Every structure is written in C-alpha cells, then in structure tokens.
Amino acid sequence: MNPEQRIAAQHLEGPLLVLAGPGTGKTTTLVGRYEFLLSQNINPKQIICCTFSKKAADELKERIASNSGLNATGLPIATFHALSLRILKSIGEAIGVPRDFDIWTKNFERERVVRELQKSVIQAGLYKDVADEEKVIPPKNGCVEN
To answer: pTM, whole model, 2 decimals?
Structure first.
C-alpha cells in the first residue's frame, strides 16, 4: 500500500468512506483496512465493507478470505444494494416493510404500477386542473393512453 492507502486503512475514528477513481487501489485499501480492523480484534461480523459493483464486492470477499483465512460467506461484505437488501430483510418490519417484499427488476413491473397509480389519481380527480395533454400515462406496448 502507498502512504495514502495506509492512512485510510489504519483509520480508527469511526466509519471511513474511500472515494477514488478506477485503478487507484480502492480494493487494496479496503482489504488493508479490513485486515487492520481484524488486527484490532474487531469482530468481522461488525465490519461493513461495501462497494458499488458486484465484481468489486466478489473480489473484496475473495481477497479478504484469502488474506485472513476467514470464511467470508455471510459477512457484511457486498454491494451497497445487497447490504441494503439484507438490512431491509432483517429490520424492515420495524419500519413498516414486510418481510416478503419484492424488488422489481424488470421495467414492465415498475411501469405497470406507475400506470395503475396514475389512473387512480386521474379517476380520483386529483388532476382536475391539469391539461389533458399533460395527463399522459406511461406507454404500454408503444401506445400512449390518456
């Protein structure tokens, strides 16, 4: 690690956000930080290590497991999205999110719900002062409905 990476890796005053461009050693810094926190006797289950891409998260898990001898499965080392999903599944009910919620991954799923909501809003008269040409419902099969 270079000096800047080492400073980031050995930071102990709370959480740390590492922002850097491609190929600048973010993964090396995060792996070094993880190892440093382990050397400080911090429980690996209490170390949240996240990144943006699945590829980077997989590399983090692999390098941390290889360097530390830990089984990284189940540890909070993942993408922001995966960690957010894990958090919602564990505490979601306390904030009104049912355990069996779905994540819509297809555009048609989101568009269907938006179309249904917009129709309901129009039928409820909430668009009464909106010009008809502005009451466009998102396209369904290439057709625009009013």
So the answer is: 0.67
